[in-house]
Amino acid sequence: MRKILTVIAVNLGLLLSAAVVAELVFGTWFSSEPLDQLGLVRNLKTTISAGSLYEGGGDFAYQRDQWGFRGPGVDPAQVIILTVGGSTTNQLYLPDDATWQAVMERELAERGHAVVVANAGIDGQSTIGHLRAMTEWFPHVPGLKPRFVLFYVGLNDVHTGGGSVDTLRHSSRIKWFRQHSALWQAGTKVVGMFVARRARLTHQRVDYDTAQWTDIAVEPDWPSKAAADIDSYKDRLRELARLSHDMDAVPVFVTQTRGDFKVVDGKVLGMVEEGGLNGVDHYIRVSAFNAALREVCAEQGWVCLDMAREVTFEVGDFYDYLHNTPKGAAKVGHWLATKLAGLV
Questions:
Q1: CATH 3.90.70.10 applies to domain 31-340
Q2: Angstrom distance (rounded) from CA 121 to CA 111
Q3: Which residue, among 262, 263, 276, has the nearest Cα to 217 in the 3D structure?
């Protein structure tokens, strides 16, 4: 018995020693590389299943490259348009070729404007996090000098929480360990499964055909309490524009909308949602932040693309309250290509 225990102990010791050596040689525990210090998902390839979210959804590869951008890999020096936003920019549950960036890139090419578009969307990130990205992420991507930085913003700023995605820091020691561990990084499928599972907490299919609608807000007095938040949002927009100019890029701001409200014969109708705000409340909030963006754009003379007012979405364009189906993303990409064709 003692002999067996000794053999087991020796083998465990050898495995542990090998693991330590592997971590020291291949891990990033002592790296001075700035990107290694951020809570970015990088060098990831996993399988995502969208079959339960929208018609035609299936399994596809979701990737983040060595710089943290979505996709199989992009040469930063070739990027013309850098797109920045939250989950509606990342579009986790859409294949690469169905994202609005891919549609926009294809349609611009068809119009004679061959451009490379990079997707820097991070689920849940607001303009607070975008400011961090502009100062702590993008400056450390070799050769990245986009001509345009497109900010697809507003929805997440309605509910800014200052979480880990906005600080670009790890939200727990476990995530910090995963980021630096060579052995963990070798199991990227495990990491990807975790990312996908966590995302499904906020990506759930909504049945628009059976939805109940109301024209009465739960919190009609919200605007009277939101002045400070909206002023802070305006300040962040000004800073994003300044940082874009500092990298010799033109900032392009795009207003956003949601799928849980609509205007019928001049009346706002919102979906009745369990436990809290309804679509009318979200309409009031999103409209206020979009108005703030339009105001600052007019004040500063920026390029502001008012998608919220100009694009009409229909049933089938969203699979939940916020996120577009491929059909909806195609509308966004087509509209953006039309707007940007004269600029690029």
A1: no
A2: 25
A3: 276
